[in-house]
Amino acid sequence: LVYISSGGSERFFMECCKGMLSKPVYILTRGTGNSLAAAMESLAYLQQNGGSGEILQGSLDEIGGRIRLLLRISTAFSRMQHMRVGAMGAPSDWLIASGYNASAYREKLGIEMVDIPLTRILEEYEAARYEENEWVRAIALKRFDPQEKEKALRLYGALQRICEKDALDAFTLRCFDLIGAIHTTGCVALSIMN
Questions:
Q1: Is the pTM of this model over 0.70?
Q2: Strand 84-88 to 170-173 pairing
Q3: How far apart are CA 113 and CA 86, in angstroms?
């Protein structure tokens, strides 16, 4: 975030931003003293040199709202750096554009993708263990078929153990194959994990 107070500051902007062309630069204007003209020239410089940016101008509420949003986005990107995301099972066969490029995730977002075969989930499911917690107790009190509740909770336990063993921060799950393999869905397990 760069504040341009007046015209004639473009050269200072250029010097200041030489090493920042790989990231968006947000240019805050004052609204008077040719600040907007200098900001427009500075933004053009960024764009001509492969950078990107945005001019922030308007009421204090508008600018404040935009800066708060940008801060939330920046915080989210920072949190994603070095995340490990498990892909538990490949995308379903009918999904024709839902694959992922692990190197792009790593390069652009800093996320490491971890492929986890569905067979591993089934192996963990066979262990038939799950952590007792408030969500498990709440499900136990529901008046559903006890066998169905047990299958759903065993799947929860399997997913939880995989996340812990592989140090996953998040994961995706190929759910529909579970119906045929263990006769339950991932819905309850995913709800507890969320």
A1: no
A2: parallel
A3: 6
Beta strand segments in the chain, E: 2-4, 25-29, 53-56, 84-88, 112-116, 170-173
Q: Residue 104: count other Cβ atoms within 10 Å of its Cβ.
A: 11
DSSP 106-128: IIII-PEEEEE-HHHHHHHHHT-
Give the HSE-up count for residue 15: Cα atoms under 13 Å, Cβ half-sphere: 4
Burial class (CB in 10 A: 0-12, 13-18, 19+), 116: buried
The b/e string for 19-55 (b: 16+ C-beta within 10 A; e otherwise) is eeeeeebbbbbeeeebbbebbbbbbebbeeeebebeb
- pLDDT tens string 163-191: 999 999 999 888 888 888 888 888 889 99
Helix (H) or strand (E) holding 189: helix 187-193
